[in-house]
């Protein structure tokens, strides 16, 4: 159904959120000139300036701040009204913006698209992939409705159902005297040449915190954010890496790597499903979330 709110207000919210016409245009996948024209039309309708143009982008005028405070709740109410109408019809419809972790794109995006297309043809999916920290920020900003996120802690959150949980392993070259063991204690990581993702990666933050708590000095030989890069560097003898147990299975089976679980403490990684706090859940969003929950085995295989 057509929105009861002028679509130009959605553009206004996006520009206000990002503080830049350039970034807003890129986010909305439209030309900056088109976006500028729509904002100018909105300002003409209001009879006042909404933004000050600066060298770094745009900032809200005092009038713009007043408008922003009023339009945000109106947009939420409008979305809820539209959802109420759809719910009466009993048919999920509308756009659902889904965030995927890079490791899950290949295993999840196609099956989810096909399942939604077959069961709910009036639901339109919009996929985005990115690092967990970025996806979580986009959820908080309302740019995504649902997203898969990584959790490197063991804390259960009732609003984030766990879709997959695996142990973290230390990986090394084949036949290595450390990674060929049954397990390795976290304290034994001291002195090893480690290949880890750079801060602020969630795993790096967790390892740094554990190192402080257990008085362990980690030796970072190299930083590499890509798990594939880490595995290739380990196979080349550059050091050790810490990855999900399922990630290295193929290379361990092929004899390119060896691995063992880290214990005391045991390190686990979870993939959870999270939703934006900025908008009420719609029937379409709930159906897509239900389908994602049903793909737990596919998601687990991607870790």
Automatic annotation (TrEMBL):
Residues 9-61 form the HTH lysR-type domain. It comes from the Bacteria. Pfam families: HTH_1 (PF00126), LysR_substrate (PF03466). Gene3D superfamilies: Periplasmic binding protein-like II, Winged helix-like DNA-binding domain superfamily/Winged helix DNA-binding domain. PANTHER family: NITROGEN ASSIMILATION REGULATORY PROTEIN NAC, TRANSCRIPTIONAL REGULATORY PROTEIN NAC-RELATED. Belongs to the LysR transcriptional regulatory family. This is LysR family transcriptional regulator. It comes from Pigmentiphaga daeguensis. The lineage of its organism: Bacteria, Pseudomonadati, Pseudomonadota, Betaproteobacteria, Burkholderiales.
